[in-house]
Every structure is written in structure tokens, then in C-alpha cells.
Design brief:
heterodimer; A: about 110 residues; mainly beta; seven-stranded mixed sheet; about 0% helix; globular; B: about 120 residues; six-stranded mixed sheet; five-stranded antiparallel sheet
């Protein structure tokens, strides 16, 4: 089945630790995105990539980093510089260059120990 | 930048009733307005969308209306069923600075509960 796979489903981070969230898609989509979801708030864009080896900051990129070495993969690293990392992280992709009709993964819940 | 406000934050209805969720946007250049449904523990799923050159769009029990002048759009669900219970997000997007990339700005979400 085609889709977007995020792993792990739950992740715990210790103080000062970097953690990496995985996002893989087999939809052959060019564009991929990372959103952060906090309770009672809408989805906020962290980073996006429209093509391999290229990515741009979204609205809340501070404390996060990404890479796009392969079309299928867009991992997100939550660094120790992100002081409030507890949130639900959603990866999405689209074949539409206008960022419409996003397909989302099932998300990763990140919590701080 | 774009700002999207969504109301109400929670909505409780009886099975068979209608549900309406409203969103307002700030950027008159926005031209694409999707609605997403998010079930517990899952990612959002696109359920319906509308473009600025259309005033209304229907898909079975769901419909979306757009008022460009007032800069608001609404989701209407008729004959609600318990499986409609979920969080619903509206969003708005338009071309950003003349590039081909239009960023989606999401509303805060509405928790819809349909009681049997």
C-alpha cells in the first residue's frame, strides 16, 4: 500500500539530547513537510522540502533540523536547542507544487523525560 | 502573513443533526481552502476543499461554502453520524510572493462529538 510512514509512534527525549523522527513515503511525491501540533492549536509548519537536497524553514524552524538526501525520506531532528519539544509531530507530502492536497502520516508523539 | 481563526473549538450534536464549523482568514490573496478530519491518534485527512472561484461545493453529506467578500468559509455536515466524531481543521493558502509555493495556514481545530 502507498502511504507515509512515521516512526516511532512515541518518543521520549532527555534533557540535552537530540532525537530524530523518521518519515518515509512511497507515493513518489516531490514535496514533503513537517508540522507540529499542540493541544488546542492548529498545525504549524516547521520545515518543508520541494525537491531532493533542498529544504526551507517554515514558521517555527528554530531548534529543529532536517535533511532530504532521498526523495522518499525527510527525517526531522529535534535538537537540544528546542526548549519545548513536547508535541505531536506530523509529516506530510504532496505531488502538488502549490502545497495543496497534503497526505499526512500518523504522527509521532514526542515527550520530554 | 495569513491568520486563520476557527470556531467553535468544541461542538456537540445529536446523531442526525447538522454541524457547522466556521473559519475566517485575513489574507485576501488566499485562494485555496481545504478541510481536514483528524481521528484520534491519526494524521489529518483531506475531506473537501474549495477554490476562490467557487462559492459552494458538496460531497454527499459534507459541503463547504466560501464568502470571499467577508473572508470566511464554513464546513457543513448533515445527518451526522457517530463516526463523524473527530477534530476538524480548516486551512487557507495562496501564492507566496509570486512563487509557486503556497503555504497552508491552519485554524485551531474543532472537536466534533456526535452522540448516538
Amino acid at each position: 500500500d502507498g502511504g507515509i510512514t512515521q516512526s516511532p509512534k512515541y518518543l521520549f527525549r532527555k534533557e540535552g539530547q537530540n532525537v530524530t523522527l523518521s518519515c518515509e513515503q512511497n507515493l513518489n511525491h516531490d514535496a514533503m513537510y513537517w508540522y507540529r501540533q499542540d493541544p488546542g492549536q492548529g498545525l504549524r509548519l516547521i520545515y518543508y522540502s520541494q525537491i531532493v537536497n533542498d529544504f526551507q524553514k517554515g514558521d517555527i524552524a528554530e531548534g529543529y533540523s532536517v535533511s532530504r538526501e532521498k526523495k522518499e525520506s525527510f527525517p526531522l531532528t529535534v535538537t537540544s536547542a528546542q526548549k519545548n519539544p513536547t508535541a505531536f509531530y506530523l509529516c506530510a507530502s504532496t505531488t502538488d507544487r502549490n502545497n495543496e492536497k497534503l497526505f499526512f502520516g500518523s504522527g509521532t508523539q514526542l515527550s520530554v523525560l | 502573513g495569513e491568520n486563520v481563526e476557527q470556531h467553535p473549538s468544541t461542538l456537540s450534536v445529536q446523531e442526525g443533526d447538522s454541524a457547522v464549523i466556521k473559519c475566517t482568514y485575513s489574507d485576501s490573496a488566499s485562494n485555496y481552502f481545504p478541510w481536514y478530519k483528524q481521528e484520534l491518534g491519526k494524521g489529518p485527512q483531506l475531506i473537501i476543499d474549495i477554490r476562490s472561484n467557487v462559492g459552494e461545493k458538496k460531497d454527499q453529506r459534507i459541503a463547504v461554502t466560501l464568502n470571499k467578500t467577508a473572508k470566511h468559509f464554513s464546513l457543513h455536515i448533515t445527518e451526522t453520524q457517530p463516526e463523524d466524531s473527530a477534530v476538524y481543521f480548516c486551512a487557507a493558502s495562496g501564492n507566496a510572493g509570486g512563487t509557486s509555493y503556497g503555504k497552508l495556514t491552519f485554524g485551531q481545530g474543532t472537536i466534533l462529538t456526535v452522540h448516538p
